[in-house]
């Protein structure tokens, strides 16, 4: 009997760490995205990428022995619902809000997350106002709109383009203004063609008469309408099409199939880059059964979640949002999967990466 009791006690001691791990609270990362409505296709890709990072982490033991959970709430593209969702995420123990899509959503996310004491990591917006020194809880992984706009304008100038049509639907007015300023600063004449999101094909058909090149700045409403249009019947598109999207790049490439498209991107090409980050992303998509995540938006979601996970591991504590903020600020200048990032207490904008890409008529995106 004595031997049995000792053996039982030994089993309890051995099982203790495993039981403690099962009982430990999960590490929760939150999202509020338009999982219904016109923004769904982009939001779903962002979520799929973030989920790959979470599954990767859990397959490797989680964070400090705790399971990581991704909690995604649907806001339908409504900034007021987004703000409500951020409060719900705080109440459900989230350590951060990951991502937001577009200028309006990201401003709502920045305000709501500040009010409840959550960091906002990885806005899908280059609005320079998100880089205000007063927003000490916002951590971006991309340059602002001006950097992308300058690169795009410079390329058009190299190609001897003297006049462009700027087709914009008002979804991201700050971005549209940055594009117009950069083009004009490079001596390129700009004719602005307002796009009605309910009739975007009509504006596209005017572009050829306006200029030999068109720069697109379209939001999810316009893209959804175009997806329901026999797009190949749109005539009069200029030979040269360029876009500097903060969201919806994959949709634009899909719908403009058969047309050459130049674009700026703040992320490496998810289909061809040799960075370890991108190779891991592809392997994780195959491993966890999510090949649809392999898009620019999916890679963004993956990178943002992966940063939070790795920062928490290095920080040795994952109990409060403040733990994550300290861990991010202590990141320093360190690449993540070969992708250069730099964060510090006075540096919350971790990447200045931006490059030009081309999607050929064959549908393949290239640098």
TrEMBL record:
Keywords: Signal
Pfam families assigned to the protein according to its UniProt record, in alphabetical order: Peripla_BP_6
InterPro entries with a match to the protein in the record: BCAA_transport, Leu-bd, Peripla_BP_I
Domain spans labelled Leucine-binding protein: 26-351
Segment forming the signal sequence: 1-20
PANTHER family noted in UniProt: LEUCINE-SPECIFIC-BINDING PROTEIN, PERIPLASMIC BINDING PROTEIN OF ABC TRANSPORTER FOR NATURAL AMINO ACIDS
Family, as annotated: Belongs to the leucine-binding protein family.
Protein name from the UniProt record: ABC transporter substrate-binding protein
